[in-house]
Specification:
By secondary structure, the protein is mainly β. The chain has 3 helices and 13 strands; from the N terminus they run E-H-E-E-E-E-H-E-E-E-H-E-E-E-E-E.
Length: about 180
């Protein structure tokens, strides 16, 4: 048996199968690991109403507090895709950054997380709001989450201002 008493545990980001974050957290917890899945309440539009749902702050990521020598026991859990690495080494998250995330989720209206990287020239589709279903090309970016999208219809070009949250990339993201 490995003596882990002298080794310091660290937080590691773990990439998991999409929409399996809670199941994997539960399984890792059952196996005795300390895990953190930051959840945030968001308002979603259903076909006939808005509903508040709790979803992961970082889609497809959870944090596990382990001794790095135990990584194979974590990787053994179905749905776990792997640890985030840089130059072949597992990337660890300092304790203070996990504490920052924990404090941030207490005040969800004070920040936003942008999970997509959308740049000028990328082809996109509007997925919610009054322009839902329209496709276009990002013409310019106003700020971190607002951008202008050019939509060509009936030989006229419309330029709309839309939030990045209301867009999805088409194909590989290039036009």
């Amino acid at each position: 048996m490995i003596n882990l008493e002298n080794e310091k545990k660290q937080w590691f980001p773990l990439c998991v199968k999409g929409r399996y974050e809670r199941k994997i957290c539960d399984e890792l917890t059952k196996r005795g690991f300390t895990v953190y899945l930051p959840l945030i309440k968001r308002r979603h539009l259903w076909s006939d109403r808005y509903k508040i749902i709790e979803e992961p702050l970082f889609s497809r990521y959870i944090f596990v507090h382990i001794d790095p020598r135990l990584k194979y026991f974590v990787l053994d859990v179905p749905g776990v895709q792997g640890f985030i690495t840089f130059q072949g080494q597992m990337v660890h998250i300092p304790d203070f950054q996990i504490e920052y995330i924990q404090r941030m989720v207490e005040y969800p209206d004070t920040f936003e997380v942008i999970n997509k990287i959308i740049k000028t020239g990328y082809k996109v589709r509007v997925i919610s709001g009054p322009f839902c279903g329209m496709e276009g090309v990002v013409q310019s970016i106003k700020n971190k989450s607002r951008m202008y999208v050019t939509i060509d219809h009936i030989h006229h070009t419309l330029v709309i201002e839309v939030s990045e949250y209301d867009l999805e990339l088409i194909k590989d993201g290039t036009s």
